[in-house]
Amino acid sequence: MEKASMTGLRRVNNTRGGREGQNNNKDGVDHRSSGGLSVLGIITQVTTEGKVKVIDRIDGSGAGDVDTSTVVTPVDGTITGVSGRKLKVLCIPETWVNPSGKYHIGVKGSFSLYPKQLRERMTKDRKEKTWDPLHKELLAEAQRKVQAIENQKSNGSSSSGTNGNGSGGGGGNSSTSSNLLEKLGKEDAESRVSQLNTLEKKYSDLGPAYDCVVYHDGQVWRACIDTSECGHLASGVHLGEYRLTHQWSALTQNDHYTVSINVHNDGNLLEIVGMCSSHGTHVASIASANFPDNPEKNGVAPGAQIVSITIVITVEHSLFKFLNN
C-alpha cells in the first residue's frame, strides 16, 4: 500500500480494475478517515463511469454495534422487543419479505451513535420539549405557594385569632394550630422549590432507546430501527445491507443523522454506520468528487470509488483506544 499524502488518504490496488499508483479517472482509491463520510454529500454522487461512488460504509469504532442474537417469531402479529415494547409486525409494509418468519431483535441507544456536538444539540432539544414545560410549571406553582404564605404572614392574617386586647379570647389553641399549619405549609413549599432546583441541576438524559429488528429476505439482510419508540415498525428506518443495496436514511427528522447498516454473524450482530465529523467527507471530496456539470469542482480522481471507514465516534468508541489497549 502506497501512502498518498499526509491527509490520511491511501491508494490501494483496485480489484475492479486499474493499476496501483495510477492517478486517473479510472483508478481505485480507498479514502479512509476517522470521521467517515456524509451520506448527504459525496455518497449521492457517481463516478465518471456512472458507478456508485461510495461502495461500502463500515463502522470500525464499535459504537454502532447492536447485539441481535435473540431470535423470535411473531405471536398474534407482534414481537416483544428487547425494550419490552410490543412491535407490531402486522403493520409492516407488504414489501417486507421474510421467508423464515424469524426475526433477530436488539436495542440501541441513539446517543451512543451521535458525535459530541449532535448529542449536545439533541439533549438540549429534548430537554426543552419534554422536561422544561412540566418542570417550569411545577417550579412556578411551588414558588407562588411560598410567596402566598409570605404575603399572608406580612399581612398579619396569622394573628386573626386574637381580640383587640391581644388575648386569644379562649382561642389560643386554634391560633397555635393555625400557626403550625402555616409553618408546615411553608416548609413544604420551600422544600418543593429546593428539590425542583436540585433536579434541574442534576438533569441527565440518556436519550431514546430504539428497538432493532433484523431479518433475511432471501437475498440480503435487512434491519428496521423503531424510531417511533412505540412499536410502529412501518414508520421506522428500514434498510438493507449497504454494500449490496446502497441504501441510507436519516435516523430521525430531528437529528438529520444519516445512517446505513451492515449485518454480521448470520444476523446476530447489527452494525449501524454513521459519521462523527465532516472531515472524512471533506478529504474524500478533494480526492474524488465528481461534478459532471461543473468539472472545475472535481477532485483529483473523480472516477474513483470509495470505502468509508469510521474509526472514531467518541473517546469511548474508538479504534485507537482498542489498539492502544
UniProtKB/TrEMBL annotation:
<protein>
    <submittedName>
        <fullName>Tripeptidyl-peptidase 2</fullName>
    </submittedName>
</protein>
<feature type="region of interest" description="Disordered">
    <location>
        <begin position="1"/>
        <end position="34"/>
    </location>
</feature>
<comment type="similarity">
    <text>Belongs to the peptidase S8 family.</text>
</comment>
<keyword id="KW-0720">Serine protease</keyword>
<dbReference type="InterPro" id="IPR022398">
    <property type="entry name" value="Peptidase_S8_His-AS"/>
</dbReference>
<dbReference type="GO" id="GO:0004252">
    <property type="term" value="F:serine-type endopeptidase activity"/>
</dbReference>
<dbReference type="GO" id="GO:0005829">
    <property type="term" value="C:cytosol"/>
</dbReference>
<keyword id="KW-0645">Protease</keyword>
<feature type="compositionally biased region" description="Gly residues">
    <location>
        <begin position="163"/>
        <end position="173"/>
    </location>
</feature>
<feature type="compositionally biased region" description="Polar residues">
    <location>
        <begin position="12"/>
        <end position="26"/>
    </location>
</feature>
<dbReference type="Pfam" id="PF00082">
    <property type="entry name" value="Peptidase_S8"/>
</dbReference>
<dbReference type="GO" id="GO:0006508">
    <property type="term" value="P:proteolysis"/>
</dbReference>
<dbReference type="InterPro" id="IPR000209">
    <property type="entry name" value="Peptidase_S8/S53_dom"/>
</dbReference>
<feature type="domain" description="Peptidase S8/S53">
    <location>
        <begin position="254"/>
        <end position="311"/>
    </location>
</feature>
<dbReference type="InterPro" id="IPR036852">
    <property type="entry name" value="Peptidase_S8/S53_dom_sf"/>
</dbReference>
<keyword id="KW-0378">Hydrolase</keyword>
<feature type="region of interest" description="Disordered">
    <location>
        <begin position="150"/>
        <end position="189"/>
    </location>
</feature>
<dbReference type="InterPro" id="IPR050131">
    <property type="entry name" value="Peptidase_S8_subtilisin-like"/>
</dbReference>
<dbReference type="GO" id="GO:0008240">
    <property type="term" value="F:tripeptidyl-peptidase activity"/>
</dbReference>
